[in-house]
Here is the input.
Amino acid sequence: MFKKGSIRMSIPSKVEYAIIGAGIHGLSTAWHLAAKLKAKGKGDGSKILVIDKDSIAAGASGIACGVIRNNYYQPAMRELMAMCVEVWESDAKNFHYHDVGYMQISPECMENDVAEIYAQQKNIGYDSVFIQGKKESEQYMKKYFSDWQAQGITSVLHEKRGGYANNTSSIYGLADKAEAEGVRILTGTEVKGFEFGSNSNAVTGIETDKGLIKCDHVIVGAGPWVKRFWDMMDLPNQISIKNSKGEMHNNVPMWQYWFLTEGVLGVEPGFLKTDDDNMPPVLHVDTDAPLYSDVDKSLITDELWGIYYKPDFHFNGIQGGSSPYKVGKAGGEGVLVDPYGPKSSEFTLDDHFAHMWTSALAHCHKRFEGKSHLFKKGATGGLGCFTPDSFPIFDTFRENVYLIADSNHGYKMIGVGKLVADEVLGEKSKLLEPFRFSRYEQGKLHPTSNSPFPWS
Ligand SMILES: Cc1cc2nc3c(=O)[nH]c(=O)nc-3n(C[C@H](O)[C@H](O)[C@H](O)COP(=O)(O)OP(=O)(O)OC[C@H]3O[C@@H](n4cnc5c(N)ncnc54)[C@H](O)[C@@H]3O)c2cc1C
Here is the structure.
């Protein structure tokens, strides 16, 4: 297995495929591309170089909660996630994947949306159960947790597949697979710019802090740093979007940063076992019932709120989060992404999150009452860089640059690299088609749901 900072190699002057970012997308693409090159008799992983300014899993993939679910209101997202879950299931051991399932527990205002998700999951053969009605939902939840007490719930979508994976371990698992195919991973090397062709728009080389690397194809999987690469390619920071009525909106900012709030309650991970002594599914609860403080009973909110949580031995406690919030100006100008995640002094969790999230846990299960003081203080959470509609862009720019901009949906999307590898080799993917950049101008937008989260 790779150890952080253990990769040493000289800078090659030329590679065929340069992949920027050693996170879930860069490494999944590298692994699949190498295997496909070999299968087609076109070479192997030695044609591929993954470059990271820091280390493997240094970005969002290394701090993600790790939740893997299908629950999306958008048909294109659901189909893509079903394919991604298959990749997780293909090697649960090396991906450190826990197939505990996932529950979306919702209030009346979301019931129709979730019913539609369930109907479409049936159509694509994705195993799930849907419970409707206040009493029925409560009975269903009490079968798993006799201390269940959440209010305002009228439906439960229980996905039998999905669950979560351990963030850094799974990314190292991917790195092992890529390296086994002959891929080289160059860490501690920052991409500073692109060299462009004199007779074309294409990128002919990447300028790093250690020298120029000529290349034929570039794949960018830079997570929250995507705006920097967008700017390197001179792409527009304001775009036009056609809405569902056919009206054009001009000058819409391209990027928006959000801060993802997550934390850990310091109890034994087994504290959230089900009544029959099993590890529970990942739980996501949204409700419009008033949320009161578990510390002093004051009202925290009487608007729609949501949390997700799971027991996690990796984080050693109950780990989860609540709705993110926007940071910086629309357009993302001036937001300091570095130092990233827990190392950031600017973007950190405040006491409000701990108070809200632990009170919400107590709202859902009696066992969490009086446990707020066990919230683990320390840096968690991190930035995500979102697209104008908060859905991914998978597309080619400047003739030979494949951009994977997942709009912060992406830890679960381990299969995207497989499809990107096909596209880089000239085979268009039907599953990626709904995520082209041209959808904004053409008004081919994804439907939006009533969830309080920007990613559902
Ligand atoms: C707190 C948090 C929780 C999350 N939880 C979940 C979850 O439960 N489930 C889920 O599906 N998604 C989750 N996400 C979203 C998910 O983590 C990201 O969408 C996904 O990891 C992005 O993967 P990536 O490979 O594109 O980028 P990253 O993992 O961020 O990797 C990008 C890499 O690019 C490198 N890089 C950047 N700039 C340069 C440069 N100039 N030169 C060289 N290298 C560079 C970085 O060092 C980094 O290693 C979460 C995100 C956050 C922040």
